[in-house]
């Protein structure tokens, strides 16, 4: 209970700060994390070292520092994203690329799968896309149950409907696509072993969800990658909407998962520092392989 109270107070405090101040504080906090041994820096460095072995040690160290800064910015801007009005948040979006392709698919009444990786400000991307039409979002409840209602209200207030990552939630996604609506999923979130296959992500075997390719294959929905790039000095965000290759729904499960990971990689390479490298993407390992972290 105390953790919930403290967390809500921190959210309230950070929501009072202008975005440039929030991002400046995040940059400073991230630099501080980079100076001392801690779990966040360990996971970030481990992921970057394995995913970019061809880079020089100096290049990887610079990316670790920048990534920790962006991760801290992401944490501090959450208060605003959950407590500001939707209109105030959407006003921070300075540019939208690829919207016409999305609108064309929607206009033809086809279902749309929005794959939003842990890149940039995914909360902004979700709020914007929920204004594009009826949207169902796959949602994994937080470990702290006292935060569940807060998060649901924050993410549903622009019109999205959140469904849990269980059988009923998956059925809701299929139904939404059948109605020609939008569904939103985090494509780089680790699934349980029964719901994923191992496929390369930046050359490292990663437990990868099969849900997106199954949804696309069965419904004929078009898959778009979506992320909100964080602009320098708190100037706002640039929303990127990128149509994927239809081959994402073709081949066997490993081939489809590999193409999904490649689509995420293409987004990450556009803004590598803004990917959440502190996330334990490679926690689950193939049979017989030792711990990654």
Any overview of this molecule?
With 293 residues, the chain is of the alpha/beta class. The protein folds into two domains: 1-84, no CATH class; 89-276, no CATH class. 48% of the residues lie in helices and 17% in strands. It has twelve helices and nine strands. It has helices at residues 2-15, 19-35, 39-51, 57-76, 78-83, 86-90, 99-107, 122-129, 148-156, 167-178, 211-219, 253-270; strands spanning 93-97, 112-115, 135-139, 161-164, 182-185, 196-201, 204-209, 222-230, 237-243. The strands form two sheets. It has a seven-stranded mixed β-sheet, sandwiched between helices. Helix 9 links the parallel strand 3 and strand 4 (161-164). Helix 2 crosses helix 4 and helix 3 packs across helix 4 (57-76). The two termini are 30 Å apart. The model has no long low-confidence stretch (mean pLDDT 94).
Biggest sheet details: 7 strands, mixed
Low-confidence stretches: none
What percent of the residues sit in helical stretches (DSSP H or I)? Answer: 40-55%
The count of strands amounts to: 9
Strand content: 15-25%
Average pLDDT across residues?
94
Number of helices: 12
Q: Strand-and-helix sequence, N→C?
A: HHHHHHEHEHEHEHEEEHEEH
What's the shape? globular
Provide the gyration radius in Å.
Answer: 19 Å
Question: What structural class results from the helix and strand content?
Answer: alpha/beta
Domains, number: 2
Please give the alpha-carbon distance between the first and last residues: 30 Å
Strand order of the largest sheet: 1-9-8-2-5-3-4
């Amino acid at each position: 209970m105390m953790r919930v109270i403290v967390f809500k107070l921190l959210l309230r405090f950070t929501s009072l700060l202008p975005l440039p101040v929030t991002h400046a504080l995040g940059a400073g906090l991230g630099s501080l994390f980079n100076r001392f041994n801690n779990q966040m820096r360990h996971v970030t460095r481990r992921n970057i070292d394995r995913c970019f072995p061809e880079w020089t040690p100096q290049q990887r160290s610079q990316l670790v520092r920048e990534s920790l800064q962006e991760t801290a910015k992401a944490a501090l801007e959450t208060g605003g994203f959950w407590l500001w009005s939707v209109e105030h948040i959407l006003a921070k979006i300075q540019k939208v690329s690829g919207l016409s392709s999305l609108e064309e698919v929607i206009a033809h009444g086809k279902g749309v799968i929005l794959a939003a990786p842990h890149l940039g400000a995914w909360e902004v991307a979700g709020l914007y896309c929920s204004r594009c039409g009826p949207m169902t979002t796959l949602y994994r409840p937080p470990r702290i149950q006292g935060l569940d209602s807060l998060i649901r209200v924050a993410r549903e207030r622009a019109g999205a409907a959140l469904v849990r990552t269980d059988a009923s939630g998956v059925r809701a996604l299929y139904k939404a696509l059948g109605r020609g609506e939008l569904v939103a999923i985090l494509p780089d979130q680790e699934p349980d072993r029964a719901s994923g296959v191992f496929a390369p992500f930046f050359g490292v075997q990663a437990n990868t969800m099969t849900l997106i390719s199954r949804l696309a294959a069965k419904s004929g929905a078009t898959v778009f990658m979506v992320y909100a790039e964080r602009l320098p000095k708190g100037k706002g965000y640039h929303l990127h909407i990128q149509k994927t290759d239809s081959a994402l729904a073709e081949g066997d499960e490993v081939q489809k998962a590999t193409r999904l990971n490649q689509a995420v990689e293409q987004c990450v390479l556009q803004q590598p520092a803004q990917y959440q490298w502190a996330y334990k993407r490679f926690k689950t390992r193939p049979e017989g392989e030792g711990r990654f972290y």
